[in-house]
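Note to self: the last two entries modelled the partners one at a time, which told us nothing about the interface. This time every component goes in together.
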Amino acid sequence: MKKWSGFFVLGLFVSPATWAQTADTSRQLPLVQVEEHRHPAERQPALQRQSPDTLLLRALPAASVADWLQWQGSASLRSYGPNGLATLSMRGSSAQQNTILWEGLPLLNPMNGTPDLNLYPMWLLGGVSVQTGSSASDFGSGAIGGALHFRQGIPQKHDAAVFTEMRSFGDYAGGVAASVRACKGWYQIRGLYRTAQNNFPYTNMARFGNPEERLAHAAHAQGGILQEAGWQFHPNWRLRAAWWVQAHRRELPASMTEQQSTAVQADTAHRFAVSLTGQAGRWQLAFRQGLLREVNHFADERLGFDERHRFNALLQEISAATTLGRHEFSQLLQQAYYTANSPNFSGQERQYRLALVPGWRLNGAKTTARVQLRVEMVDGQLVPLTPSLQVEQRLAPALQMRLAVSRTYRLPGFNDLYWQPGGNADLQPENGWQAETGLGWKKQWGSWAFSVDGGAFWSDLTDWIIWLPNTSLGYWTPRNLRRVQSMGWEQQWGVSKQWRKLKLRLNGDYAYVATTHREVGVGEQELLGKQLIYIPKHQLRSRFFVEHASFFAGWQYSYNGLRFTSSDNRFFLPNQHLHQIMLGGSKAWGKQLLRLTGTIHNAFNLPYQLIAWRPMPGRHYQITLQINFNAS
Amino acid sequence: MKQSFQRFGLLLLLSSGLLFTACKDETTTPTPEPTAAYGSGIFVVNEGPFQNGTGTITFINRSSGAVQQDVFQAANGRPLGNVAQSMASFGTVGMLVVNNAGKIEFVDLKDFKSTGVIENMALPSGIVVAGNTGKAYVTEWVSFSGNGRVAVIDIASKQVLRRIAVGEFPNAVAWHNNRIFVANSNQNTVVEIDPQADTILRTHTVGDRPNSMVSVGNSLFVLCSGTPSWAGTETAGALAEIVGNQVNIRNFTAATMHPGQLTLHPDGGSLLYQLPEGVYTLLPTASGSITPGTPVIARSFYHFSADPQGLLYGTDAKDFVSNGVILRYERNFTLRDSLPAGIAPGSIHYR
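The predicted structure of the combined assembly is written out below.
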């Protein structure tokens, strides 16, 4: 464990936004202490990683991952509205070119490969972090732009928490969490329920006279429970099992340019994960298994749709690592078996993936390096060999350099392959290369702490899959048509100051992302050099928090630059500035802690859209009450 | 989630233009000849991005070739709506059918300003003006499963006079011999409607999946795509000729041939249709099975039709999230030029 803690400390050098949080704020993280880098594949040097600000978690416990990423990090969010479909783009990636991992196991739907970030409430997840840059050699298909990591921590004591929150537009949420820690075992459970009408007013620019309307048919309800039990049955061995069940039902509102919608989507998910980790002699060993079962039910009374799409996934991995001096050698074997049923497939579709990932790691005093090669077969066919190199070099006590190069790929989804009509079984994986380099600097002067990190990235992805109509056959079909290049700069900074009971903290993220077509299909030459749609070239997030004793105030700012909505860059959404203000306080009562937080969302009441013609709410309010039992 | 939207979007787009492009009624003769800014010319109906966008209208001056983009937005300061589908005109009144927005926008062709709207239509698609009756007929899919209907519109009052139940996916609608003909594009029937009583006179059995119609003299030619392999047992496309009560059907020689986009050559002597390999000609007077031969234009289009007064027009929708182009061909099928369009140019109204 000490060794792993060391990596955690090392990891801080590349995560300045995390440093800037004072020790006190991390102590107030809910319930559990997140055990860092438990999964060997997550011990990636040179890749940036950020976690939600603890004050954000305190003020908005029912927030989804989408709610968080709108305010922090360099990912660009595309949202159809509150609680609607929300996808992300990192470093110019498409929505499918990112991955989500729960306890190191990929959660992605094999049919469309599109993670919907509003389906992941942070209260349930315990620990969330976003990692930018390719980790395809670790996590395989889709880990191109970045990855979201969900990880349960291990409770250190008995404790519990409840919260309730009310928000404008009929948005109510409540949650409970409890954990029990015995000498060798633990159990924790988290539950959440949230419901909202989302009937906010907006100006309908698409209607005559631009009338004020209220968003209709946008209600949603979400509930979930995540439980985990663990047993440290030997000083070196630990067994964990987790079960996560969640249901989500939402009405899909019409855009401003559409007629009233009657579409409804209901998603249910059952997820199991079991892991056995430990050490035998010089070997660190881990066995993990996951079982996912998800159902997506889409119905539209007006259009006459009523369809269910299901998938099951069995995921297994075995890893072994041994250390010889400063050298660590590892071997990872992963296999996944997917089945999917959809009325749009001709029958049940299956896929088997088997991957072998040998790796070497150097743990030097000033240098950490890692080399891996992923060899993967999908249904017996070899996919591109995926090597990666990651290097971190400490140039000075406060200065760290990093470099990473990786091959990347994404397998076509089941919809790409099997959709009837149009599925193209001859599709090749999207594949390419990605490289990044950067410098991180951190300094503490008395009660001041500073951190700055900046890095450039470049990626080139070919055989980009795009659905286009086969004009005469009358249906759409996907093809490997385009080559897309991304390059840009990501900058993070943080300043914090503590003076007696007063703590000040300012953090920020800036991203410049130029993502352009380098090769296109016949007749599409006009698209060459054009920025991809819905990817802003400039994006800025900033947060400022003031804490004094048991009170705090926070301001968050989010800037999205102009986003093109047509691939020839003729149409666009203008840039947007959003502000969020939080005020809160806490009161200790024995071992109990009561927290009350008020939040003003979109504080300056600015109209904006993240997807064209999809209105977002103006200024609205939220109040949250949380009680922690046996809080320390 | 995306999958659901994708399903929705794909079906919507698939049904909205790729396979069942509505045939414009070239025999429509509006009573007063307008002298408006948009009185004569070519209106390209651009569907727009099918999930989160708006359709637009591109206007082409027939004589000068000058192009004006998004004339509806320019005149009215608001977008047209999601998935613009088709257009028709009567005198100085233009009617724009907007599918997913469920509406018909009425505009004054003097300046393209909106003069009214009929809302709460059930997935309207094709439109045709019924001669000088002052009525227009608009097909409504109603849903993606089950039967559709036809809305009878009084152009002057902008009211729906009545609705007539028809078959599945009514899309193409034509005015022929003082009758309205509606193609049930998910079946093998064409419904004939009496515009005086607004009742169904008869239902003609044609080939599978009728997608476009052209009136030539006493004959109404109905092009049927046949059933593609992904939709069931594959059947060949066919050309049905309706004369009075009689239907003469000519099948394409191969079951894999699924033609679309029937239009009448401006010279009036031949029909044009499209297969994946390109645009082909067909003599209306020929008989027997249809063997396509060599295409006269060796490429296919998102939409293809002929201007009765001039050229042939094909549209290229590119990737459906960028502006498309309009390719103009001479009557001898040589390419004249290309003009810019909006996103997903899916149908053209000539007047």
